[in-house]
Amino acid sequence: MNEVLSVKGLGKSFKNTRVVxxxxxxxxxxEIMAVLGPNGAGKSTTIRSIMGILLPDEGSVTFHNxxxxxxxxxxxxxxxxxxxxxKKVKVMDxxxxxxxxxxxxxxRAKERALEYLKKFDLEGKENVSVDELSKGMGQKVxxxxxxxxxxxxxxxxxPFSGLDPVSQEVFKQEIKDLAKKGTAILLSSHQMNxxxxxxxxxxxxxxxxxxxxxxxxxVKEQYANFKCTIHGDNDRSMLxxxxxxxxxxxxxxxxxxxxxxxxxxxxxxKQLPSNLDIQELSVDRISLHEIFVDIATDxxxxxxxxxxxxx
Amino acid sequence: MRNSWKVAKWEIKRNLKxxxxxxxxxLTPIIxxxxxxxxxxxxxxxxxxxxxxxxTTVYLNDEVGIWDQLEPMVSKSDDLHWDxxxxxxxxxxxxxxLEEETRAVYIxxxxxxxxxxxxxxxxxxxxxxxxxxxxxxxxQPLRYVQLERTGLDESEIQSAMTPIxxxxxxxxxxxxxxxxxxxxxxxxAFLEKFIPGVFAGLVxxxxxxxxxxxxxxxxxxxxxxxxxxxxxxxxxxELMQGKIIGxxxxxxxxxxxWIGMALPVALALVDYPIIKYLLVPETLLFLLIAVLGYLMFxxxxxxxxxxxxxxxxxxxxxxxxFMIPWLPFIFLGPVISNPESTLxxxxxxxxxxxxxxxxxxxxxxxxxxxxxxxISLAILIVSIWLLMKLAGKIFRIGILIYGKNATLPEIWKxxxx
Lengths: 311, 417
Prior knowledge:
The complex is a heterodimer of chains A (about 300) and B (about 425).
Chain A: E1 3-14, E2 17-28, E3 32-36, H1 43-51, E4 58-63, E5 76-79, H2 91-101, H3 106-119, H4 135-147, E6 153-157, H5 165-180, E7 184-189, H6 192-198, E8 201-206, E9 209-215, H7 216-223, E10 226-231, H8 236-241, E11 245-251, E12 254-259, H9 265-270, E13 280-285, H10 288-296, H11 300-310
Parallel strand pairs in A: 3-7, 3-8, 5-6, 6-7
Antiparallel strand pairs in A: 1-2, 1-4, 8-9, 10-12, 10-13, 11-12
Chain B: H1 2-17, H2 19-48, E1 56-62, H3 67-76, E2 82-86, H4 91-100, E3 104-109, H5 111-116, E4 121-123, H6 131-134, H7 139-149, H8 154-161, H9 179-223, H10 227-231, H11 236-269, H12 274-278, H13 281-305, H14 316-323, H15 327-330, H16 332-337, H17 342-349, H18 354-364, H19 370-398, H20 408-416
Helix pairs in contact in B: 1-11, 2-11, 9-11, 9-13, 9-18, 11-13, 13-18, 13-19, 17-18
GO molecular function (chain A): ATP binding; ATP hydrolysis activity
Keywords (chain A): ATP-binding, Nucleotide-binding, Transport
Pfam family, one (chain A): ABC_tran
């Protein structure tokens, strides 16, 4: 694969607190790589270190296809988590300023800006002052600003935060399209459901450390085991005795049975004890969301996952 | 550096397109002009009501017979607003007339006045106080008549009446020049420094104001959260430099517009050849000091702006920093009254006051203390270098901290990191 960015052994401390450590990952051309993790996990610190906005204490950030030292700022598009726009300027002016900062030819930039405004349903807004835009419109303009110079690498820190579902869909589609055209995309998010559908590979980070790293399919295969949800009044000890059940969670009448990874679902259902109280039963895979919540709340699965991965 | 220019260009363009900047650009000199002229206009207007100054009626009982000599003088004079009416009435008879009129005087030039040397005159109400000087007009002719009667001839009278005057002749190192020339040179030398000084003061004042705009701009960058997007294209140092340069250009532009508006007015009102005195080598030094002053304040403000999200909620500390450019004003009086005093010298070495105080001192001092100037400039340049470093540290960290204003201990921590 054609690597665009490699991060190796990245570590950063603020005062005496270690915010991130031993972060290793690559971003390839034309793929969407997601950095996932709960709030405060170190996602933004990692991204800011890549951008050179923060100086990492240890480790290296390598931009391939770039000979000189330092961050090839002109080849990167960056949408930070905390973002905004100057208030009393016209939409087109600020987009052209962003393009100029990247040394992108202004006539091309203008063309692209108009194209994107049209695409994002903002046609005719180019001469409107930024403070007249709604929040969603503003976010679209920020997004355009980050891709206006056709970056090789696009870094999006929480691109979906604060967006309505319609805009989320628009962004998602655009990000996928960009990847298809060959842009390497690194995005961070805590909205698993969105990421699950679009990313090729993911890096799950918790408390500044790697928890899971791999392609979406690998991760699902490795961690997304089956779980069985049973509605009914059942005794926990009885449920735990069932074959291939690794863990049981109970809340009121609902019991969730986490199954081992080698389970064959059809066989497993056949051997369920007949005295179980089953009002409703469903079997499905653990979603990325659940892995994430587990990790964020430090539950057993997370630790297991961590151990498995560490091997 | 190229990136700094891009940022600077943007800041300039953004401000030139903003209404508030344009309004203040053109309105400030107009407001200044209003404040400068309205009070004088108002105080004048009382007297301006009837354009012709009020006339004083002078009833003259001229028994001595000197009026014929004086008449052409009085009627031609612009300063004397007299309506002279000859009369032969006595003072007692005139009393009623004076009581009836508001601005009337009765003067009796009689034999008794010649003998005693005292001329009595009677005034009604509202005769201006200045009349007591105007009436001196009669002194010389009366004295002439007096002397004539003692039997002196023409030349004797002339010499008796010539007053003795005393002329001061200061002895200087180069005493070749005659007195008048030297005086003219003194005025010229003064203007040569004073006018560039006033000019530099204006420049400093204007860029102190744009220094405040640097502060606002940095604070806005933080508040509107654009900083991080910009920092993906340029470094924090370049962004900071760009802002400082951008607002410097805006400040210069402001001064140019102000001077462009003020100079024609000044040229029309003042007789001195202002432009001639402005285009002297001294102006360069003054400008250098003003520019250094700007760089210092701008770096303080750009750092400070990065610590504040909302400029209205600045704590006491930040408020205090805001006062720094105005410090020299506190010492205005003592420095003007004694520009060579120890206080004045010390203030020229304190970086925060030195630009203002140096400009002030150099405008009024005859001889420039070159050693002091160099020390002061050296201190200033070193301070700027240091302050820029510190501001860079504060800016780099502060601009990315969202949602709160930095406290003094926090800023201290950043400085030490």
